[in-house]
Amino acid sequence: MDLVFRDAEVVDGSGAPSYRADVALDGGRIAAIVKEGAAAGCQRPTARRVIDAEGLVLSPGFIDMHAHSDLALLRDPDHSAKAAQGVTLEVLGQDGLSYAPVDDRTLDEVRRAVAGWNGGAPGDTGVDFDWRTVGEYLDRLDRGIAVNAAYLVPQGTVRMYAVGWDDRPATEAELNRMRQLVAEGLEQGAVGMSSGLTYTPGMYAPDSELTELCRVVARYGGYYCPHHRSYGAGALEAYAEMVRLTREAGCALHLAHATMNFGVNEGRAPELLALLDRALADGCDISLDSYPYTPGCTTLAALLPSWAHEGGPEALLARLRDDVTAELIRRHVEELGSDGCHGVPVEWGTIEVSGVTGPALAAFVGRRVPDWPTARRLLVEDRLGSTILQHVGHEENVRAIMRHRVHTGGSDGILQGAKPHPRAYGTFPEYLGRYVREEGVLSLEECVAHLTSRPAARLRLPDRGLVREGYAADLVLFDPATVASGATYASPRTLPIGIPHVLVAGHFVIEDGHRTPALPGRAIRRTPTA
Predict the structure, then answer these.
(1) Read out DSSP for 358-378?
(2) Which of 126, 227, 442, 498 is the residue whose CA sits 20 to 30 A from 262?
(3) How big is the CA angle at 131 (ends 126 and 137), to the nearest 5 degrees?
(4) Which of 139, 121, 122 is nearest to 130 (CA)?
(5) Using CA of residue 9, residue 12, residue 18, residue 20, what is the dihedral sign?
(6) pTM higher than 0.90 for the full model?
């Protein structure tokens, strides 16, 4: 064998009680599992290398169901932000905006639109954008990345490609083109489709249009992952909308960063969970992900009303520069509650700048935005590239949702900015350290299942998410007594502790607590349905 973990406490991802065993790896697969007290005559496995795992937990690698590493995986081979957490697979293409499928025009527009999430604005030479289709992007990942990655076709990018930035229903020809783009993306290996329905231009799509695209997703056995239309004033209605829509389309539903934020939703998580329980009882195929923190993170521009974005980033900047139009935007943001801010008027004291693209604006990072004039200045001078933390969540909602039986873990980790949200570097050890060991919100076995087998099942992965013979050797070895997130709001890029070893396809990406040069990750393509 290549490697044996000797005397590990195996938490296998199924939710079943842990057990003590030797686990042997060979050729990138789990070759043998010999439990303590195995029948007489069953020899302990031997290998070229043996690691004493006494006192450590061996589990499947963690699956980040909501990642924004679309460019980070390509520009940063180290990628310790995720590898050091025990993440061995990330799902990209989130919130309806990513980099494939595109043509030259769309690529330039989407790079501007999501520079705050991912960098990569026009003029940024950190990545050679040498792809246009989903398949070509996945092929690019296959050249070697730190951890594995799956991809969702981004509905907002598809609409940008076929319709542009107009706030109107698609024509039949445009809808057919979008159907074709989604189908091609799924045929080329995407696992489903995402939307960002508080982001333009995806939010301009009516339910009828989304339903038609979800029918395509269902035909290929994929799932729909919406950032739905409101996490604030209309949150419950927005969740119900997605359930109705996917039920009509016959499509599996995975709710992105499912939470109940803003003052209007304090203590209302049980209402959301009751809604989902009723749908599950009716046979709907639903799952969700969340991160174990209360603040959210997005771009400053996302708070603006959708009408201000019509025509694209340059049109929005022109409106912000015009005093009369800027005053109308302010009224929607501060008084009426814009659709970009989930129907809730912005409370500037909750908005903290986490990153800027313009060096001259660096002094704003880590500070709260005091008022609209400051926000307007940032938007214009940073050309919409500023990212923010939005301190609007509620701990009791976070805890209630993470206990649900269809819950999975997703970091929603934005790696850009001088002070990113600590969830980018800390989500998975935060679950294990704080919510398992310190506070007992979840048992260890239950939590590991949330982070491994449940997301693997949603992704239809036949050989990942469990410690089983024949499965891919995507594994993490951690100390249950010490594992913890090192990332804080003050020092968000601090790596976790208590995770000495992480393997992807049997190769160490973290060894003795340090990142290796290995790049064994590859694109994980959709498993065809029968």
Answers:
(1) SGGGGGGTTSBP-SHHHHHHH
(2) 442
(3) 90
(4) 139
(5) negative
(6) yes
